[in-house]
Amino acid sequence: MTLRLAYRPPYDWAAMLWFLQTHLMKEVEAVEDGSWRRTVVLGRCRGWVSVSHLPQKNALQVTLSTSLTPVLPLLLRRLRDLFDLDAQPQRIAACLAQDPLLAPSLLSHPGLRVPGAFDAFELGVRAIIGQQVTVKAATTVSSRFAAAFGEPCETPFADLTRYTAHPERIAGLTVDDVAPMGIVSAARSRAIIAFANACASGDLRLSAAQAPDEVIKKLVSLPGIGPWTAHYIAMRALRWPDAFPKEDIAIRNNLGGMSSKEAEARSQSWRPWRSYAVMHIWESLAVAKAKKKP
């Protein structure tokens, strides 16, 4: 089955695809030839989905296995959230372009979106894994995690061979089960298991329908989850446009070496679109880093 999902132009597809490619869980997700695809578990339905860009139509083309037809509305909602298709780029740009720090990125990356999360639990696990390590290292460990605890499956794609691990599966693990994946500490392993238990029990619900401030409070009450991780999860899994991980060292350095308190104050003019400001800063830093490579 193939259909289209429309968006408000402009849309920086290249930046979205690059972000997803550098943050994916191998065997569960893949990016190839300008398309993103992944395995899907929604309720009792299992299958796969592939998404590509139709720039002349201001839309994304979605191809999915027929096994997912019973959950089509939910699947499409997940995709709209993941690809941030309901964003209002003109309105966001009008606010952020007033800041000279962000203006160059807004010109070079019009329509930059905030990548969401197809699976909020999966995103949370990756966020915990990614604390204080490089994006590349986090992606490597996350992929090992998926390979160890995800369920094997068959798809038409050689690079999609597992379904993502569900909260109940991870909640039943021990630190000794998790540590061999390359998790940097026992405390980090315990944080992942505690997060899984909170999600599996229903004590923690990660959806755009939840109040971000309340979810952030619950997240930081869990062992091993601090404000940075909580705001990152809020930005992507809760679709909160005003999340701001003020502890982010890259953001603080980009702001001239500010403290987290100073960065919070500096960000006030970006409200209510601070998540988009964060993406523009990260994108600018990624571009600058790429230019330095020989």
UniProtKB/TrEMBL annotation:
SMART domains reported in the protein's UniProt record: AlkA_N (SM01009), ENDO3c (SM00478)
CC annotations in GO: cytoplasm; protein-DNA complex
Enzyme Commission number(s) of this protein: 3.2.2.21
PROSITE patterns xref list: ALKYLBASE_DNA_GLYCOS (PS00516)
GO MF term set: alkylated DNA binding; DNA-3-methyladenine glycosylase activity; DNA-7-methylguanine glycosylase activity
Annotated ranges, domain DNA-3-methyladenine glycosylase AlkA N-terminal: 2-119
CDD domains the record matches: ENDO3c
Recorded superkingdom: Bacteria
Similarity comment: Belongs to the alkylbase DNA glycosidase AlkA family.
Family matches, as PANTHER family: DNA-3-METHYLADENINE GLYCOSYLASE (PTHR43003), DNA-3-METHYLADENINE GLYCOSYLASE 2 (PTHR43003:SF13)
Protein name: DNA-3-methyladenine glycosylase II
Protein's organism: Enterobacter agglomerans (Erwinia herbicola)
